[in-house]
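In response to the reviewer comment on reproducibility (Comment 2.3), we provide here a single inverse folding case reported in full, input and output, so that an independent group could reproduce the run without further information from us. The C-alpha cells appear first.
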C-alpha cells in the first residue's frame, strides 16, 4: 500500500498492486485495474518511487506466514 494526496489535501492509501497506469495530464491520474481513477498531487515519478519502495519493502520482509513455525 502507498499513501498519496488528493487535490483537496486529504490522504488516501491505495493498493499499489492494483495500479494499471499513472499519467500526468497535467494533474496526475492513477488508473486502477478495477476501472477506478483518482487524481493526486504527487507527480508520476513520485508515484513510481513510492511503488518501488513498497515492492522493495515487501520483498525484503518475505512471506512470514509461510515460515515453518515448528
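Designed residues, in position order:
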Amino acid at each position: 500500500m502507498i499513501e498519496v494526496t488528493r487535490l483537496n489535501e486529504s490522504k488516501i492509501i491505495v493498493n499499489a498492486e492494483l495500479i494499471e497506469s499513472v499519467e500526468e495530464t497535467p494533474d496526475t491520474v492513477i488508473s486502477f485495474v478495477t476501472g477506478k481513477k483518482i487524481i493526486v498531487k504527487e507527480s508520476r515519478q513520485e508515484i513510481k518511487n513510492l511503488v518501488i519502495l513498497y515492492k522493495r519493502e515487501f520483498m525484503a520482509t518475505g512471506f512470514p506466514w509461510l515460515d515453518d513455525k515448528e
